[in-house]
Amino acid sequence: PGEAAEPRKFVFLVSESRPPACAQPALAAEQAARKREELNALYVALTRARNTLMISSIEPHRATTDSWWKRLQGLPAGLMEEIAAPISLQPLTENSAAGDDAIFNLPELPALPDAMRLQPATEPPVDEDSVSARIGKAMHRLLEWGGHSSDEHVGAVAGEFRLSPAQAAEACALAQRILGGQGAWAWNEDAVAWQGNEVDLVYQGQPLRLDRLVLRKDAGHEGHWWVLDYKSAHAPQRQPALIAQLQCYRAAVQLIYPGTTVKGAFLTGYGKVVELA
Predict the structure, then answer these.
(1) How far apart are CA 74 and CA 94, in angstroms?
(2) What global pTM score does this model have?
(3) 20 to 30 A Cα–Cα from 256, which one of 69, 101, 189, 208?
(4) Residue-wise over 231-248: b if at least 16 C-beta within 10 A, else e?
(5) Could you give the CA distance from residue 44 to residue 160 in angstroms, rounded to a whole number?
(6) What is the predicted pLDDT for the residue at 102?
C-alpha cells in the first residue's frame, strides 16, 4: 500500500479474475484503490472544466458500470449544467470590504449522487510497526526458538523488536499460553511423528512461511498434517485476510501430500485452538 514504508506482499498474478486465495485480500484492496483513484480523476475533471467537459466513449468489449460514461449517463438531466455553471466574479472597487458578500457569487452545487461517493475502506491497513505488531513478532520468535522463556531469550526479543521489559514479558506470556494451551499436543512427542518450525514453501509462485507444520501419529489422527499459525490476536477467525492466508498455507501442503488429510488452525496467544473450517 502507498501509505506503508515498504511492501508487505509481492504477488505475480496470471489473471485478476482467478487469484489464489492468499492474494484475494490484497487484490481486493488494490482494485478498491483503483476505483477511488478513478473517482478522484472524474471529480477533478468535473470541477476544473472552465466551459465544457467532453467525454467520449466506445462500446466496451465487456459491460461495465465503473466507467465515467456509465456513471454520468445515470445523472439527472441538467445536473451537468448546474455543476459547470460559471462563477460570477465582480471586480473589487474602492467601496468593497474584505468580507463583502458581493465580491464572489458562488453557485450552490447539488448533492453528489451515491454512485459517485467514495466508500470508506472496510479494513484499515495494519501498522506493522505498532507495539502490538512488534509484541506479536516477538512471540513468534520465542516460539521459533522452542518457547524458551529465560531472561536471556526475553531480553533478546526485547532488543530485536524494540520492546520494553514489560512488553517483552507480555510476548513471552503469549508464547507460553500457546505452548501450554489447547494446542500443547503439537509439541508432544507421543502425538507428533514429524514437526517443523518456520517451514518455507512455494505455492503458485508465491513464497510462504508456515509457523509450524506437524504430522500427527496419535490415535484418531494418524497421518494427518496440521498447519499451525500463531496469532497474538484474540479472534483471528474474524479477520478475512488471516483466514485467506491460512487457507493458502493449507492448500500448499495439500498439493505436496495429495490424498492425505491436511488441517489448518490458529493457535492464539490466549491458549485457544481455532480450527479452519
Answers:
(1) 47
(2) 0.55
(3) 189
(4) bbeeebbebebbbbbbbb
(5) 46
(6) 46
